[in-house]
Design brief:
By secondary structure, the protein is α/β, with parallel strands linked by helices. It has 6 helices and 9 strands; from the N terminus they run E-E-H-E-E-E-H-E-H-E-H-E-H-E-H. Strands 1, 2, 3, 4, 5, 6, 7, 8 and 9 form a 9-stranded mixed sheet that branches. The chain is globular, with a radius of gyration of 17 Å. Bound molecules: guanosine-5'-triphosphate and magnesium ion. The site of magnesium ion has 4 residues, from helix 1.
Length: about 240
Amino acid sequence: MANINYANKEIIIKIVYYGPGMSGKTTNLQVLHQMVPKDAASRMISLATEQDRTLYFDLLPISLGSVKGFNTKFQLYTVPGQVYYNTTRKLVLNGVDGVVFVADSQQGKMPENKESLENLRENLAEYGIDMNTFAVVMQYNKRDLLPVYSIEELQRELNPMGFPYAEAVAFKGQGLMETLKLISKLTLQRIGSKSGAQVQDADGNPATPAPAAAPAQQAQPATSSDFFKNLQNKMK
Ligand SMILES: Nc1nc2c(ncn2[C@@H]2O[C@H](COP(=O)(O)OP(=O)(O)OP(=O)(O)O)[C@@H](O)[C@H]2O)c(=O)[nH]1
Ligand SMILES: [Mg+2]
């Protein structure tokens, strides 16, 4: 359901970071905010927190610059992971284009990961989305907190669907760009292949969707344009 507006040549893609409480969703956005250039992500909004627990959501808007003449923006959201905030989680999923599931790798956290994943499946279904065919990336976070489950165990227990995955240590920034790259690639592919895209022409009528992004050079990001080129390059 990416929002593509042909009148002002803009694409807005909504990505939701989902997962159990304390798995590192907010940390993902906070550290990404530090990593991307200022002109690409000028502000991050954290709406309602209590002792660093998310009560509503976080939002990090990232401008990726121009893709085939379209000003492309990602809106990264988090949900509150604590079980009793399901109404909020459902609301935040409204209009979602892609999900990053942030799992906690620590031994003993498998039941919470599974419960959250099942909750995601149910909430997506309420919007008529089949998770099995949706743009989902698994992030196995907290790889530094030993003992952790092996990647094989996590894959077997949480990812029988075979979604792309990345390992991460969110507070150190490890694996965060890799994760963003994977989910960007998946969502842009879906827009390029028409399915899931809500495309409007200047009159608000259905129109042909924009093609997917083209690859470019790899470099340490300096401007939003470089940042996007870097991201595109990683999507190859
Ligand atoms: N050691 C370690 N700590 C991490 C990592 N990622 C996040 N943390 C810490 O885990 C705690 C919870 O992180 P948050 O990002 O607030 O978790 P959340 O998923 O947003 O939690 P809710 O908002 O309650 O759903 C914080 O103290 C983080 O610093 C990691 O990879 N390794
Ligand atoms: Mg949070």
